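S1.2 Input.
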Amino acid sequence: MKNFHTWKKRLAFGTFAALLFVSVYNGGAKMQAVDALAKTGTAVPVLLSAPMASGNPDALTAPSQTGAPDNTATPGNTATPGNTATPGSTATPDSTVTPGSTATPDSTVTPEVSSTPTVSPKYKETLKFTSKTTQVKAGKKIILKAKRTDENGKTIASGKGSKIVFSVSNKKIATITKNGAFVGKRVGTVKVIAKYKKLKVQKKIKVLPKKTIGIDAGHQQYADSSLEPIGPGSSIRKIKVAGGTSGVASHMAEYELTLKIAKALKKSLVKKGYAVVMTRTKNSVNISNRERAEKINKSGADICIRLHADAADASAKGASGLYPGKSNPYVSHLSKKSKKLCDSIMKSYCKSTGIRNRGSIVRDDLTGTNWSEVPVMLLEMGFMTNAEEDRFITSDKGETKMVRGIVKGIDAYFGY
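S1.3 Output.
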């Protein structure tokens, strides 16, 4: 009978060991082993708990670690609760592994370290123009505006403290202050640039002429003695282009002088913001007085200046201005404005040059005047038959003063 109980205990022990081995590799159910022993009334062997705590299955080898079968705990001798290992602790050799716990061999749990993400700007910085203006008349001042958005989404308008800086691509056409005060100087198209840090935007502004001036350089290299009507609907005929006079001292032909002054006048007027239309740009042409007036009319010019030089006896000197009178049968409606233009130019021209002012004179027999559709005046710049005056009006010094005087007269006429 004693042997029967001994083999019964050995059979129970073997069953426990097998179940314990399987639990290590399969995430185990140590409670199965405990329950199996409990049914037979056999206590859990103390020495077998140590290999389980270390997680080393190879330690479950020897019955030599359990001692002789007679040394196995007798029925009813179960482990006390105080000797049970708590979850997560490393079991000591004399402690029993708590059912449901899994030992991790020599592992240390390292807490996960989270990195702090880089904070990106909430908004992208932007810069743009808010002014819709695309064209400005020469001489006129406007304020161009732009705005920027910072990284916080805040909108800052151009102006003092905004740090938005303006510039232009061509200072001959227009100027602009750093704060956006734009002034057109002459006809053309210019790029306006707004900058903030590395941001840059640009737009094109077209500078329009403040006025358009028609210039007729009187005469031409060869006269044309064929006839044309003196005015619209007129039965009176005059030669198309007369030959003109020449300088007694300079020996310069009148047609050369008039073109020389016309080109210099155009250059100066363009700098002042005017557009200029020329009836001719060279001497070897054949354009009648009627055709010259019609060219100016079609151009959209606001006024017409006809340049000539006078001839008489050697003692005659001075400048004259010719304009259509109130009783002119063709352009009487232009008389008042033409007189105003004539007076304005004569005053400034004579003041600038020092040439005697012979006054504004009505002439209704001039073809180039009678076919005009805009205010018109003919300037007799001086007498080429007077040696002193001839030398002056054909000189570079005289040219500068003559042009300056005409430009000032035009400015005064328009109120600039």
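S1.4 Remarks. The chain is about 30% helix and 25% strand.
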